[in-house]
Amino acid sequence: MQALVQRVLRASVRIDGDTVAQIGAGLLVLFCAEQGDTEASADKLLQKLLKLRIFSDAQGKMNLSLQDLQNSGAPAGLLIVSQFTLAADTSGGNRPSFKNAADPIQGRKLYDYFVQQAQGVHAQVETGVFAADMQVELVNDGPVTIPIRIA
After folding, report:
1. What is the mean pLDDT of residues 126-137?
2. What is the sign, positive or negative, of the torsion defined by CA atoms of 44, 151, 5, 55?
3. Helix (H/G/I), strand (E/B), else coil: 35
4. Contact yes or no for 23/11 (Cβ under 8 A)
5. Which of 64, 62, 49, 52 is nearest to 114 (CA)?
6. In sequence order, what are the beta bridge partners of 81?
7. Residue 117 belongs to what domain range?
8. Residue 4: CB partners within 8 Å, gap ≥ 6?
9. Has residue 151 got a pLDDT over 90?
10. DSSP string, 93-138
11. CA distance 57 to 101
12. DSSP state, 84?
């Protein structure tokens, strides 16, 4: 399981010109379930995301997590977007292979589980639409972009 995490000032998802999700300051998480991933993988990824210290403290040092921001009452949005293309394998040529991505049924199951778990512990969770053609817009803060892979 992997995620690409971006610290954002704001982010949104549009489908067919309509905004379906948006957050202010927080994290945009591009989520990818891969073959062999389980709910335990999703739980581990969520805990890592909530505790990842990539927000600035009063001294400007990246020392605060999304959980810390939420506990302090600061803006702390979490926008989760499914993105199977993170599983791309480009080692065989110029056309990516997605053979490592979870099949659509398992991918949706793990995405839905991940979102449900996040909603149970975080106040502001927004989502894209699984398997939809989405346009994701963001203002990356920093920029800070962190890849996370959970085995």
Report:
1. 97
2. positive
3. coil
4. yes
5. 49
6. 30
7. 2-149
8. 29, 30, 83, 86, 145, 146, 147, 148
9. no
10. SSS-B-TTBPPHHHHHHHHHHHHHHHHHH-S-EEE--TT---EEEE
11. 36
12. G
In tens, the pLDDT along 41-92 reads 999 999 999 999 999 999 999 999 999 999 999 989 999 999 999 999 999 9
Judge contact between 96 and 89, C-beta under 8 A. yes
Can you read off the two tokens belonging to residue 76? 């702390």
Are 8 and 114 a contacting pair, CB within 8 Å? no
% of residues, the chain, pLDDT over 90: 98
This prediction's pTM: 0.96
Q: Residue 54 is part of a domain; what is its CATH number?
A: 3.50.80.10
Which residues are the active-site residues? 83-85
Tally the domains of the chain.
Answer: 1
Confirm if 96 and 57 have CB atoms less than 8 A apart.
no
Amino acid, res. 149? R
Residue 62 and residue 15 in contact, taking contact as beta carbons nearer than 8 Å = no
**Alpha-carbon distances of 101 from 12, 104, 111, rounded to whole Å:** 24, 9, 12
